[in-house]
């Protein structure tokens, strides 16, 4: 057994964290031989609720969980952390777009960027789940100038998992037979779910999603819209935003980052854009990613036709617009930090 690593989950008294903490603490993210110290951050008014979560974690009697530190102080929460799940933020309600949360959530990611900068390990892996996730991750990185921008990522794994599930159902195969779905751009209704590079194992043969499904117009329309609107559909049904599937995706994202991707597999993550595939630079844009030794790389050389290129431009423009909105909400010192 190695030394314990410190992992922080923010929004620890909330609904996503309720699932996520158990998945992490039982070893399903960092592996069965990695002991953990969990730091749980929430706001002061939630400390009583958080105590209940601490009691439940203790009552799980999980061997890998060496210590739990509940706190409302970011200086304690981010101290020496190896991995950060930034979940704590207001969720949207029915009828809202995720970017409507910018003004509500902006302060959180500024403050937490600063706390990461001051207290976390310099190789900390940061996953932003709180919406609007891509732009929050960008802001967090801007306020943590001593940390490399590649340490900051946003979650689009939930969209990728949703896309996998839809393709599996349509192709009539188990979800384990489907891989390499791509989500381009923003975790919003402009995201671009792209099945053209997906692989489907059907009747003992590996084939493209197009061959497995044989319905091009479904792949370009109904499939794309279903994934773009899935978060809203869950809210309409549950009257609360997705939680179990979001926690599962956050665990998948961090596990892939920590453990790496297998040979011909890629995963999707919002990462600092270098302009690949014509995406705007310096926004957090979701790309297909491979990971080795804890370092991610954008998959290069995939062919993009005009239909998808247009949609990819639109989602990139939306990210630039969200980025431009930040200084008007939060006037001090956003630009010029680096
Ligand atoms: P929730 O309301 O159940 O929990 C949020 C928690 O965050 C609350 O306990 C709240 O007190 C806490 N919080 C608020 N401000 C905080 C701060 N400054 N520091 C620490 N904690 C703070 O919400 P939820 O359902 O768990 O969702 C959390 C966020 O995740 C929302 O923004 C939601 O939209 C987003 N989300 C993202 C994805 C994705 O795919 N990227 C998926 C689902 C949900
Ligand atoms: C989701 O995709 O389920 C989350 O981002 C929650 C939301 O607001 O849709």
From TrEMBL:
<dbReference type="GO" id="GO:0006108">
    <property type="term" value="P:malate metabolic process"/>
</dbReference>
<feature type="transmembrane region" description="Helical">
    <location>
        <begin position="7"/>
        <end position="25"/>
    </location>
</feature>
<keyword id="KW-0812">Transmembrane</keyword>
<comment type="similarity">
    <text>Belongs to the LDH/MDH superfamily. MDH type 2 family.</text>
</comment>
<feature type="domain" description="Lactate/malate dehydrogenase C-terminal">
    <location>
        <begin position="156"/>
        <end position="322"/>
    </location>
</feature>
<feature type="domain" description="Lactate/malate dehydrogenase N-terminal">
    <location>
        <begin position="6"/>
        <end position="152"/>
    </location>
</feature>
<dbReference type="GO" id="GO:0030060">
    <property type="term" value="F:L-malate dehydrogenase (NAD+) activity"/>
</dbReference>
<keyword id="KW-0472">Membrane</keyword>
<protein>
    <recommendedName>
        <fullName>Malate dehydrogenase, cytoplasmic</fullName>
        <ecNumber>1.1.1.37</ecNumber>
    </recommendedName>
</protein>
<keyword id="KW-0560">Oxidoreductase</keyword>
<keyword id="KW-1133">Transmembrane helix</keyword>
<keyword id="KW-0520">NAD</keyword>
